Input
Amino acid sequence: MSSAAYRWIRRLARFSSFTPEDQRTLEDVSAVTRRCIVNDDLAKAGEPSERVLVILEGMACRHKLLPDGRRQILAYLFPGDMGDPRQIMQARVDYSMCVLWPAEVAMLTAASVQRLERHPNIASAMARYALMQQAIMREWLVNVGHRTAFERLGHLLCEIHVRLEAVGLTREHAFELPLTQAELGDTLALSAVHVNRTLMELRRLKLVTFQNRHVVIHDYAALQAAAGFDPAYLNSNEKHAP
Amino acid sequence: MSSAAYRWIRRLARFSSFTPEDQRTLEDVSAVTRRCIVNDDLAKAGEPSERVLVILEGMACRHKLLPDGRRQILAYLFPGDMGDPRQIMQARVDYSMCVLWPAEVAMLTAASVQRLERHPNIASAMARYALMQQAIMREWLVNVGHRTAFERLGHLLCEIHVRLEAVGLTREHAFELPLTQAELGDTLALSAVHVNRTLMELRRLKLVTFQNRHVVIHDYAALQAAAGFDPAYLNSNEKHAP
DNA sequence: CGAGCCCTTGAAACTCGTCAATGATCGTGG
DNA sequence: CCACGATCATTGACGAGTTTCAAGGGCTCG
Output
């Protein structure tokens, strides 16, 4: 199977078992897609939301901009990731969304979301998936609030590894990550300079290298320990949770 | 009306119009309550969730504890606040919850939640309310990540004011807030000492005083400006959104 | 081949944390 | 009614982690 919806179905299938009809429905509602280039705005703070986005390929992020230019990235969206289906109730979004790497995006209408909600397996998967997304936000708050620069970066890389693995985008302990150090800084609430120094420290300790958008985790166990990473928040709602 | 569910109904009623029957249903499912004292655990990270909590009186918080004792408070729950109804799908929670001020708590069963979901007005209100809770989390991430200690504290106090006002727990620009400076520190990712210094700065500038659990905002406009607070994230989904 | 973006590095400054000690407040029991 | 202990607020001195500023170097793409 290599439909455009492949990653999305794979992502959701971790939370629920799908019948062939469920899968056809998912492919159906995501049949119309939009290709986006880097820096395309997918949403702007204060505007009506209307559609629920599904990232089929590429990468995007939610972020908030302060008036003076400071920026906090709130979430990454990898292939297979989607917005909260309840968004269709929302008058306006409070965050912006932009494309970080050329993307293919499905934009679900309220009708499509309602159609999905009528399939119990899909509705259940989306609910559990949305709960995981909230768990990620909570972990990011802990990360930014109470971990050192070193732990933050290590923790984020562990999380990304687990999330990309779930949709088949890792090879061993390596994966592509099209982020600049400045973007990592806006994510982790660190200056780009300090991200750089911390990245070099991780490299020096032979835990991780991150060069040319290519991340290699050389010692996963040690990185996990050093960062205090526990993947429970990412998979405790899955079908076969540990 | 002074039923135990008063604040809860008032909180949700901002997002949807309720019929008398809707109100009876809300009172009904929250009829059985539990009284909790300070430091009671309402949930523990890693345990099954089972119930969706509604805080009818008092105050509670969600938090995460790191192995070495560092703590991040993830959310405050004031009277009228509740957990995400989708929690009933969740195998285990990833956070802990504890009581900050003597509380009366309703613990909704999955059956109760499902009953509520069958009332369209209530389901819609809960969905919008849950979206607001997520917006609060995003704003907290911005707060902890990219605002100075001074802005963080000011922003948080503005937010709390708006939230308490929504359930009728403010008088003018004053309200009760049973938090220690250490708890504020765990919320804002600051040391208790620095919270103290920042609080004195706010006092010195005649913006806010916070003494004996009593907050008075002396100059709301100035505080809002100094903290960069925009209440849109708290009310843009309400019935009569600005 | 140049322009632009990104990474790298050093030095200085600053915000905030830690440590430590003193006070204030409050509930409790003698 | 007062002594006591506990919790919380306050203050000062010092130190650490991180930011900012600035400059140089490398890569990529037109």
About this structure: Residues 180-182, 192-193, 196-197, 199-200, 211 of chain A lie near DNA strand C (CB under 10 Å from a C1'). Chain A touches chain B at residues 46, 62, 64, 66-67, 70-72, 74, 84, 86-87, 89-92, 94-95, 124, 127-128, 130-131, 134-135, 137-142, 144-147, 188-189, 228, 232-233, 236-237, 241 (CB under 8 Å). Chain A has a mean pLDDT of 95.
